[in-house]
Structures are given as structure tokens and as C-alpha cells.
Amino acid sequence: MTGIAARMRLWGDAARWSAQRAVARAVTGGLREALRGRSLLAVVAIAFGVALGYAVELVNHAAVSELNADLAVLAGNADLEVRGPRSGFDEMLYPTIARDAGVAVASPVVEVGVKLRDHDEPLDVLGVDVFRAAQINPALVAVARERVDALRSDALFPSTGAAQWLGVDVGDSVIVQAGLHDVALRVAGRAGADRAGRYAVMDIAAVQDRFDRGGRLTRIDLRLRAGANAEAVQKRLQALLPPGVDVAPPSSSAQATTRFSRAYRVNLNVLALVALFTGAMLVYATQTLSAVRRRPQFALLRTLGLSRRRLVMWVIGEGAVLGAIGAGVGLATGYLIASMALARFGPDLGAGFFEAGAAKPAAEPLSILIFAALGIGAAVLASALPAREAARAAPAAALKAIDADVLLPAATNRIAWLLIGVGFGMAFLPSIDELPLFGYLAIALILTGGILAIPAAAQAALSRIRAPRALPLSLALAHLRATPGRFAAMLAAVVASVALMVSMAIMVTSFRQSLDDWLRVVLPADLYLRAGTDSAFLSPRDQQVIAAIPGVARAEFMRVTSIIVDPSRPRVVLLARDIDPHDAGARIALVGRDIVPAAGAPPPVWISEAVADMQHLTAGAAMTLPIGGRNVAFTVAGVFRDYARQQGSIVIERARYRALSGDDAVNEAALWLAQDASVAAVRDAIARYSGGRARIRAETPASLRDLSLATFDRTFAVTYALEAAAVIIGLVGLSAALAAQTLARSREFGMLRHVGMTRRQIEAMLAIEGAVLAAIGVAAGLIQGFAVSLILIHVVNRQSFHWGMSLHVPWLSLALLAVVLLVLATAVAAASARRATGIAAVRAVREDW
Amino acid sequence: MVELRDVAKAFDGSSPRQIFTGLSLRVEPGEYVAVVGASGVGKSTLLNTIAGLEAVDAGDVIVDGVDCAHLDDEARTTFRRDRMGFVFQAFHVLPYLSVAANVALPLALQGLHGEAADARVHAMLEAVGLGGREASAPRELSGGELQRVAIARALVHRPSLVLADEPTGNLDPQTARQIVALLRETVKASGAAAVLATHSRAVAASADRVYRLAKDGLHPTSAADIE
Amino acid sequence: MIPPRLPLRGCAAPQGGGIRGSGRPVAANVILSRRRFLALALGVAVTPARGEVTYPDVEAGTTLVFPRDEGAHPAFRSEWWYVTGWLRDSRGRDYGFQITFFRNRPGVAEASTSRFAPKQLLFAHAAIADPGVERLRVDQRAAREGFGLAYASADRTDVRIDDWSLVQDADRFVAKIAARDFALDLSLAATMPPLLEGDRGVSRKGPDPVDASYYYSRPQLVVTGTLTLGDDARQVTGVAWLDHEWSSRYLPQGAVGWDWTGIDFDDGSALMAFRIRDASAKALWAGGTWRGAHGATRTLAPDEIAFTPLAHWRSPRTGIDYPVSFRVRAGNSDVTLAPLFPDQELDARIGVGTVYWEGAVRAMVGDRPAGRGYLELTGYGQPLRI
């Protein structure tokens, strides 16, 4: 009795063991095959996505931590920071604040963007009282061999990063521009620790004297007494401050600066996730096709007693292994890419957000974990549907099927359209914490839904074509009609990547065209003069001289400064310019209606789209601005487009600004020339006046436009590369899927050869299938890409950057893209057909699994 | 109809293997011949040789008075399309075509469409007992029914020669018996000659003549001699 | 002599503590001895100066006018108000204290119109010799003059750096010091007019008459007020000594250090004595003044002054031997100086680059305590980094 039971148990164990071995063989066989063939591609795709995502994350992280570190270094141990407009505030606030009972140390700072003779970009110079700064912020302490140099008015102390940038060492001199005059400063030492951040320190009195900042401060760093209530002190001090000057913890200004570039960083991240999405789609295709091909194997395993759940787990497990390998390779590659990108382009990949120098990628366990999880997760998710598919098939049916279609859930089409509908709905939701999260979600939903909708839509489209009789064509169509699920799987990656490329192409074209249009509107004059930022300016006398230069028919001047409109944000640019309130559209690119304030109403200002979005203002609204230390009421006369200043800008009439602030200097001028005047002659006259071309840059609208568009193209160069890579992966994926499918159909081709189909006919049939597939993929990609581009333009960009733009579709490029994709896909299909029509195919009719 | 004279065939490759030599066979129109032999002896190769799908190393293969060796691939394919019909062990019915479209495949390859073609497909399906199943999808059919479709496809264009390779290999005995009978009946009715490769006694028993395939050629035998 | 190093190093030095994250050693705990400060000030002149200014020299025969000369003399390179003294709390415990305000004219930004122009710099340090911990508690301040936050009045003694101040009201001085771990709020009342040091207030520092300063003292100041140690405020009384000295040049060639003492005798008399040592520990120059309880004054010639070390204390931190106890013979006085406790060393190497000893001492005549004062010993460490 016990003997029999034991034997039965033994037998059962043996059976289970052999079944498990069979499963193991089937699965490892699948894996081995996976690593050999097209699944290698899926691994590469996942690796690509993870690598890009991780590289972007590393670069971002390096940039942000560099930026934050620099801001932290500059803020030092300050508990609070008093901030005012760029033009500064009255220095007499300093003793008032310093005497507050809660304040232990008050460190006054004058910040000036100093124009350098030998560089285009200005250098941030911080004038500090070394005795005060030393108690709050070591980074602002001049370290000199002769300490008294810290107080000398000709001594400049660049940070290590600035010294590198300037290419100067202690003892060298740096020529800077004050007004229109050159001033030689002596590099007497270094500021702060070995920071890459680009700034320099001077004595506060020297900065006030040399850069016309007498009596002004831009910042006061505060350290509070131990036990002082920071909030109470902040409140008390705020009450002492005039409008436009705020007191807040320094972190808030760091946050404001970081936030400024965050949208750009998030966009890059999303682009990387796109690559990951394409990779996931490839895994999906690979796993689906492999599940179909191995259906009989799975059926056998099922008959041997493998539970449905175990089978699902096995297939998903395969996906996880693919994902893990891809993620591992991707993380390593990403680190390499990031290192190279940081070394080559700097932390903002050439977009010009950060000045920080040599940042290094830092591999943090958390982000490694996140990206590994993303890679594996994408592969697992992409395997889930094929796994279900594999387990669903009834064992018996699967055993006899020769070559069947992917079984899609009946509700697939409904789910697809539901996703698309919800996606479009989300596009109408506002941003979250100034990030267009719903916009991104909408894109993801529309893409996923779009891919799921392909089978039904394609079937509907194909069934409309009248059945042709000619043989290769009719067979190809019949095959495609009958297997929509399978080719949708094959197309997923192509559709996703084409959609993204198309959407980016439309978005970038729209942006570029809008930028070009904008430049035409805002550059109506013949010559533009720019003295510089803070330190360089044109005095009223300079203005008179310039306006009187022979050949100048008309001169308009502009003061560029910045003010705090919202303490939680970076300063907004204030443009005081000569502008006619009755014809503002002649100078700025107005969007929507504009008004002329009624008599008695507050005077007009015009606000950029960014300001309009952030302050929720439209034409006709009332607005208060702190100018000259007073709150002044204005009427918003219009909203204009400003691609140049993402932080937002406000235009005010120059005469009004001068009256309010007493500031009569200007930074820029626009000159209209007399009919017979030559641009070169006027430029020469200006150069003669300023004692050198560099002190006043004179540019024609054409060169400014070229410069702007070149900057634009440079910024988007990275995105082009990413898109192209995604499309190539999609295409390679398609070709691999086609090849795989051709291989799987070799018995079918063998039969056709037997019954009298020529090789050429079979090749034609496959080429037609490939072409039709590509056509469907490209069409779906175009349609989805168009939809996504609308979201990019009207939701993502608007919410991220507050840039409005009008839709411009690059028809020619898209048509070219479509043709290229069609030709490539057809060629790939034809090439794979060649392999299928040899003798081997003839023999394949006898092959059994 | 079919005449093989001193045919030799070898496979080269990493381990060259002589399949057969000195093989001769003559099949007259309307004759129904079976070739038996153990698995791997080269029955399928023999059929492929007759079909012009594989070249011979020596000897002549003449089908319907044509020596395929002198034709290019295109001409051989056309010849096969017009003169031959095939029945396979694994049916090879295209899953994405309807029953009627599968049967109509040889006609379509000849450029024959429309009512005439439909009529012949219909008649053929009637003949194999699948009248009214024209629109069915192959996945709705049983194994026996699939082989009936295959037989219809093999005969619909009125070939002069039908080649069948283990036509009952994938079928249960009862279905196999029905298919054996149907195949003989329809082939005989069409007037075509037929060569069947099989190791099944039942299939061999339905033939007019039976040959055993060996390395040195074909030897007459009878169904009764098959183990 | 002690090589002048990094002039104005102290200017840029932050206060101790609270400085984090700096990659470079930024000075902490900068304490200047009065002579050291002069040495530093001299360094400014030695370095090639830009925007050279002319500092006035000390001129023999100048008559000091009070209270005007108790205020600042901004034209001179440097100036200090140096208070040292003893405090006793209600439980009879003795403490030493020093409060010093330095003024410096670095000679830069003289033409600037900015209110921040660093024409006048102010430094201050304060220390408590606390027998409870047997070491010094120290803190300091530094600022440029301006905005009423830091200044030295030219009318009378009225110097301030933020919440540290020393203000004269006729014959009374009020000192307020809020340091990191102690606070002083003291009234210092003078009972006699200022004591002119040297030749009617012109004190020579070396054989060359050019090396001199204007120098007067206010000994025997009666101290009352509050000493807060940590959170513990206590009423204190005591006696203190105020030195006020200004000059543009100070140390002679060849000097390596100096010993200085100022003693308030219990009988109301007072003695100041100093010597300037060369590398062989011999006195290059010496000077002193004695004043009796009733105002009789005697200026002492260099050969009337002798410092004889009696006991040494070796610093466990720096390994420097300090003669913390002296026999001082100055004119008719012959006193033994015994420290309140030995460890009154000030380690300011990070800041001014020197270590010295400045501490409260008892003056004994024979075995009998006869007075209380301060002793300053510099230049005993190994020759400092150049």
C-alpha cells in the first residue's frame, strides 16, 4: 500500500519534473532565440530608451545640482534675502534692516551684469562688503595675497569658473565696459571656493562708483539671531520695504531660477521616455510574434499541465529578462552619453539656461533604480498582452493552426477610442505646478489608443478596397485583412516613432515659423544698437549724439531692466521703450485685441504672454507695478508675444518710466535710416563715437534674425537627433518583424511554389504587403503625429514656456518622410522575401513543428 | 504521362548522401500509382523531382512529354501550375483565405477569374463533399475537411498529374479511409494520372500499382507486402 | 622681527563659527594684540600701495586736548581703545576681561563717493578670562565705517560695531559687548584725568624717534555692571585700565616681540611698563609710567625697566613656553606678576598668523597681593611663516 503510494508519488514527481524541464527548455529556448534574433533589437531599443532617459536625467541632475550648489554658494548661510528690481533699491534700507532686533548680520550686495570688452556674455559681478559677506557667505569673500586688495576699487575677484571662462589669472587685467567707457580691472585673487559657477566679486563701494550704482543695492543677505522667529522677522521687514522689494528665504529665489529651466528639462525627459516607449513597443511586437510562433509549444506545455498563470508568468518573465538586460546596457550607455554630453555641450545641452561650467554626472542609486525599473517595467508591460494571448489560445486549436493572427480582446477597439477620447479631454486641463502633466498624459493616451485602434481602422480601410483579382496583390491584401492584430503589433514601434517625429517636426516648424514671423514684427528698424546689459548703457548725451548721426532719420531707445512682480518668480523684464499707444502693434507682436486706455484710466502697459498666463491678465485689466520704489497703477493695453524672454516681459512707455524712476539711461536703440543713408556709414559713425565697435553692437535686422534662428536650430538639434534615432529603431524593428514573419510563413510559400506561384510573384506579394503595412503605419503615424503636435503646440509649450505659436505644417518634409519610410519598408520587405523563396521554402512544406 | 529513366539523386552538403540511383518509372495517363518506403528513404524527394522542384543528378524526367530539365524556373513553375495538382500531409490550406478562395488559387494563378472559375470551384467542392462551405474560413474546418479542400485545390484546374505526399498522414484512420477513397475517386474522375508517396497500407491498397522505393530504384510490390 | 603677513587679513576674516562650506581656510577667531595690530598696519605701508595716501607722523611736543583726543584720529593709520581689567562677582570669584576697538585707515577708496567706501575700518575683540573653565572666552567684530552701524567718533570716545560699543560720557565709559558665549555691560568710571604716557603723550617705541605713538591711559577705572556667561548674568564690580593709542608708524627694525603690563594697585597707584625684544631676547627698547594715588606721575626711561621671568607655562596646544610670571622692576616699583590662571593663550594663527598670551595677572609685592592688571606676551612662538 505504502509502496504503491510512494511509487505513485514518485511517478507524479517524475511527470512534474519532466514537464518543468520541458517548460524550462521551451522558455530558455525562447530566451536563447530572443537573444539571437529580433529580440536583441528589443533589448537594444530598451537600452536606447533607458540610456537616453538616464543620460538626460544625469545631465539634468548635474545641471540642477550645479545650479543649486552655485545658488547655495552665493546665498551662503543666509536665512533671508532682501531682493529688489535689477536697478536696485535705496541703500538706506540697509541700516534699517541691519538694526532689526532679529537680524544678526546683514550683508549688502550690488549685483551688476558687467559687459566685458572681449566677451559677448556679461559677467555677474557682486559688489560686497567683505566684512559682512564673510559672516554669511564665504563664496563672496575675496581671497587675495594682499588682503587690502579686497577693498581696492580696481580689484576684481573672479570665481574659479569665471577665471577659467575669462582665461585670466591673478595679476591679469580684465577690460569691462561702464557706460560707454572701458575700465581696466585687476584680477587680484579669487572669490569663494573652487566653484565652477561664473561670477566675480568686487568691493561694494567700487561697484557703486564704477558702474553708476551710487546709493543702490540689489540684495541684502540676512542671517538671523539664534532663536529669532524667521517668519516674524520676514513679516516685520517686509513692512519696511518699498513696493518691488521683497524679503524671502534664499531658497525661494533658487527655486524660481530652477523652475525657470524646469520645463525645458522635463521636455527633454519626455523625449527620452519616447525612446523608451518605442522600445516597449518593440518588445511588444517581439513578444507578440514570438508568442504566436510558439503557440503550438505553449499548447503542448498547457496539455502537459502547465497552468495558464505559470505560462503567463513565463512569458512576462522573458520580457523582464529582456528589459533587465536592456536596462543594464542602457544605464551604462546613459552614463557614458551623459559624461560626453556634459563635457561637450555643458549641462543644458546648448540651450543656454545655465552658465555653470564643468559639471560631472553623479550616479545616484535612486535614479539608477528608477530607470532600471522603467526599462524592466516597459518590457514587462509590453509582454503582458502577448502573455495573455499565449495563455488564452485553446491548446487544441493552437496545435492545428498553421499561421494564425494575434488574438486581440474584443474590446480593443473600444478601449482604443476611449483612450483617444480621454487623451483629448486631458489636453484641456490646466498645468499642474506649472508642468503640462496632463498634456504629456494626453500624448501618451493618444499614442497608445492610436496604436490599439490600428487593427480595426486598417481592417475597415482595407475592406473598402475592392478585392483585386491579380494574384500577388489579392493574396497580399487577403493576408493583411485577415491578420490585423499581427501587423498592428509589427507596426506599433513604427507608428509611435513616426507619430513623435511628425509631431515634433510640426511643432518645431510651427515654432520656427512663428519665431520668424515674430522677428519680422519686432525688428522694423534698419539698425539695432545694443550697449549691453547692466554696466553698459547709453547716457542721455549718448542718445542725443546717436540720434543726430547723419543718415539717421529716426531713433528709438529702450531701457531694459527687471522688476519683481511676483516674489516667488524670477524678475520680469521691464522694457521702457518709445512706443505709440495708438499703434503698439507696430513695435510689438500683439496677440489678440489691444486697447487704448480711456481718458482718466491708468496709463497703458503691454504684457508678454508669460506675464498674462502667470498673472491671469488680459487686455483691459488693471495691473500694479513697482517702479521707482512705488506701486504704480496701469492698464493692460495688450498682450504680446515675446520669444526672447521666457521669464516674462512688460513694455512701458519710456517717457513714463523715466518720470517714475528718474532713470534716463538706455541699453538699446533702433535706428531708421534716411533713404540715401548707408548702413555701413552709420555703423562706422557709431563705432567712431563709442571708440570701438564692441562697445555698441550695431546689428541689422537680418543678422539679428539669422542669429536668432541659428540659436533656435542649435537648441533643437538635440531633439532632432533623438527623434531620428527613435524612427530608425522603429524602422529596424519593422524590418526585423517582417523578416521574422516571412520566416514563419515559409511553409506557406512552399505550398504556393508547389501550386505554381513564381518566385517573383511571391516576392511581389511580400513587397506589396510591406508597402501596404508601411503605408498604414505612416498614415497612422501622420494622423497621430498631427494630433500630438496640436497638443505640443497648444498645451505643452504654452503651459511650459508660455509661448504661443501658430500652426505651420511642413508638408513637403512630411511627404518626403512618408515616401522615404514607404520605400524603406517596401525594400526591407522585398529583401526579406528573397530569403523565403529559395529551395528551402519548397522543402518547408514537409516541415512540421 | 510520367517517365523517369535511370534517375539518380544525391544531396550534397556537409555529409553527401545518395538518395537513389538507376530509378525508372513509367505512369500512363489515368494511372494511379503509389510509392511506399520507410521514412526518410526519399519519397518526397522523388515527388519533388517529378514536380520539377528539384533537379536530378542523372537520368531524364519527362512529364507529359516535357523534359523539365530543359526549362527555366519560370517555365517549370508555369508547367507545374498548368499540369499538376498537389496534396500535402499538412494540408497547407491558407488560413487567411476562404475555402473557395483556397480552391480557386490554381485558377487565379492561371488568370482564370469570374463566373467560370466560381462554377468550377463550386463543382469541385461539391465533388469533395463540401458543397455550400465556399465562404467558410479554414479554421472552422476539421482536418479531414481541410484535406478535402486540398484535394479540390489539386484538381480544380484539371491537371494531368496529381502528386500526393502522405495525404492521410495527419488524419485519424476513419477520416483517412474516407480521404483515400475520395482522392482515388476524384482523381480517377478527372482522368489525371497520380503518384502518391505513402507508408500507409490503406493508401497503397487504393493504387493501381505499388512500388517500393529503395536506394537502387523502384521495385514493384503490392499493398499486401507492406508491414 | 615678526614678518608682516597678509595685511588686512583680519579685515576679511569672518567671525568665528557659523562659517561652513568654504573650501578655503577663512580666518576664525582673529584676535589682535595691540602691537600685533600695529605690525599689520605697518605691513600696509610696506606693500606697494595704490592710491597712496600720506599718513601724519607722531610729532613730539604736540599737546593732547581732552575730551577731543579721546575720540578718533581718522587721519592716522591706526588707533585703538584697549580696555583690560578685573571683575569680581557677588560670590567673590575673579574674572579678567579685555575689550578692544581698533580703527584702521587702509588708505584705499579715499576718493570714493560711496557710503560704503572703506576709508575707515573698525575691528573689535573681547575676551573673558574665566577661572571656571581656566581658559579664555573670545569673540570679535569687524566692519567698515558707515551707515551708523560702525563708526569711531572724532569728538570723544564713542566707537561702535553693530551691537558692540564703547561710549564715553564725561569721565564715565559704557562698554557693551554681545559675544558668542558671553556678554558685558559695564560702566567704567574714571576718578582721575588721563595719564599721558611717554613724553606728554608721545610714546617712543624704539631708538628712532619716528617709531612712536600718541598714547594716554585711564588707569583705576571703577567698574560696575553685568557679566553674562552663557545664559547666566551676574552683577560684577572691579577695576579696569583703558589705553588709547594712535599712530602711523610703530615698530622698530629688529623687534621680534614684546612684553607689556598695566597694573592698578590696590592703593590707587598705577604702573605701565613695556619692553620690545630682539631676536636674542634682549630689550631693544623699553618704557613705562608710574602714577601715584594722588596724581604724581613719573615717566620711566628704558634703563629703568627690567622684566625677569619667574615661571613658565608650556601650552599643550602649541608647545610654546610663555613666561607667565615676571618680576618687573620699573623705577621704584618692584612687583611680581602672577597669572589668574596659566592658560590665557590666544591662538590666532589662522587669522593674524600669530599665537600670543594676554592675561589677567595679580601684582604681588613680596608675598602680599598689591594690585591687579594685565600682561601681554608676544613673539614667543617659533618664527612664524613668511
Mean pLDDT of chain C: 82
Q: Which regions of chain C contain 5 or more consecutive residues with pLDDT less than 50?
A: 1-51
The number of distinct β-strands of chain C equals: 23
The helix-and-strand class of chain A reads alpha+beta
User: Hey, which two chains have the biggest interface?
Assistant: A-C, 43 and 41 residues
Number of strands of chain A: 23
Shape of chain C: globular
Helicity range of the residues of chain C? Answer: under 10%
Question: What is the CATH-assigned architecture of chain C?
Answer: Beta Barrel
> What can be said about the biggest beta sheet of chain C?
13 strands, antiparallel
Q: Which word captures the global form of chain A?
A: elongated
Order of SSEs of chain C: HHEEEEEEEEEEEEEEEEEEEEEEE
Bin the strand percentage of chain A: 5-15%
* Radius of gyration of chain C, taken over Cα atoms and rounded to an integer in Å: 19 Å
What does this structure look like?
- The complex is a heterotrimer of chains A (849), B (227) and C (386).
- Chain A has 849 residues and is of the alpha+beta class.
- Chain A is built from 25 helices and 23 strands.
- In chain B, strand 7, helix 6 (173-190) and strand 8 form a beta-alpha-beta unit.
- Chain B has a single domain (2-222), classed as Rossmann fold.
- Chain B starts with a strand and ends in a 6-residue tail after the last strand.
- Chain B has 227 residues and is of the alpha/beta class.
- In chain C, 4% of the residues lie in helices and 51% in strands.
- Chain C has helices at residues 9-12, 34-46, and strands spanning 78-89, 94-104, 121-130, 135-144, 150-152, 158-161, 164-169, 172-178, 182-189, 195-196, 202-204, 212-229, 232-247, 255-265, 270-278, 283-291, 297-300, 305-314, 321-330, 333-339, 345-348, 354-365, 368-378.
- The chains are: A alpha+beta (849), B alpha/beta (227), C mainly beta (386).
- Chains in contact: A-B, A-C.
- The A-B interface holds A 397, 400-405, 469, 471, 474-475, 478-479, 481-483, 747-748, 750-760, 839, 842-843, 845-846, 848 and B 44, 48, 51, 53-54, 73-74, 77-78, 80-82, 84-86, 88-90, 92-97, 101, 105-106, 108-110, 113, 139, 143, 153, 165.
Short characterization:
The complex is a heterotrimer of chains A (about 850), B (about 230) and C (about 375). Chain B has about 230 residues and is an alpha/beta fold.
